[in-house]
């Protein structure tokens, strides 16, 4: 993955106007995958066809593919997917589509592949490009991509995450930059001033102190404290302090998070604990922290903005004016508001036949850049309005936001008052930085252990904890990697 410089801001400005979607662990506003369920298998790798898929006549394409299907709790998303399946089969009548609600899990993908149980088309997140490509668990779809007539309109910010050595291994869906969502109503009710968007760590701490009511079970901020989410949350502060997770030196991957910047970020977490502004039960995963926010039990939560917004609006009964989305706070005045850049992607199973891979690719991009895609989104917005619910679009779309199609989508959103949209000024502060290229989840897990030490004990030797975590990740994972 390549670093994102400040020049992407102009590409992303409209992204936050279109703003945030999801509201579940399904999307990669959280780094942890949900537990999988049994999924239909792709055809064995031993039976690929050498024939070119009949792309000039969709009615002649014959294949059976299994696709990623939203989990049962995502009723609206399932409705959208069912509509797409119906319309796809009108064009490709001989393609049978099997539904799988297995969600990608880095600890299970090897087992799924080995047992030939992975879906033909499955979801994954931004950190996994290098890993899946090197393991041979993602099909090289460069040929399919190059034949796609809309490829130049795809958002390069997302596409770059699965461009490995010039080859394409996934189809982008949507993305996010981690921010902080704040419950403005909680602050207003206590007469606490709302901090400026160009805020700092000190602003976070002072605001959290002012609104927290530990005796009533109300926290000022709820940083995630269990699962890989904890390490993921903390990494934003590492980046804001100017730190890095890893670096490549003389062909080797070297841990860099036990730096002065890392120590500074960990010291800030220690301050949050000492100030009693985090939940007494701090062992919160993504769903726990976002749920606490939606229930009004914490004033701030750190995540891709889409999840907290969706739950607060559609489950917590809040109104758009109750909520403010902030960039991550700068370590000090004048600093960058760096948040982890992530996203959702669709990967094609390399064990599938050529016909199945072709069908899976066509299904993945079926609604891309089409009027039918716009109509499907508008139908969903209307359905939510009928139910007195809000529609929260993706923070970063698969298409370029300033493109003709991006403007068409914006026009759809502008027609309805139940579409959540961000303020333009937020983008002038947002700074997205990709996750680590190697062993990201293992790094997150190691830092989760450190964070749990900080939150659970007094007088923790922070530097020693960081050094031990870096040593463990280095020896177990990084030392096994050779970078060409």
UniProtKB/TrEMBL annotation:
<keyword id="KW-0732">Signal</keyword>
<dbReference type="InterPro" id="IPR050490">
    <property type="entry name" value="Bact_solute-bd_prot1"/>
</dbReference>
<feature type="region of interest" description="Disordered">
    <location>
        <begin position="25"/>
        <end position="60"/>
    </location>
</feature>
<feature type="signal peptide">
    <location>
        <begin position="1"/>
        <end position="19"/>
    </location>
</feature>
<dbReference type="Pfam" id="PF01547">
    <property type="entry name" value="SBP_bac_1"/>
</dbReference>
<dbReference type="InterPro" id="IPR006059">
    <property type="entry name" value="SBP"/>
</dbReference>
<protein>
    <submittedName>
        <fullName>ABC transporter substrate-binding protein</fullName>
    </submittedName>
</protein>
<feature type="compositionally biased region" description="Low complexity">
    <location>
        <begin position="28"/>
        <end position="53"/>
    </location>
</feature>
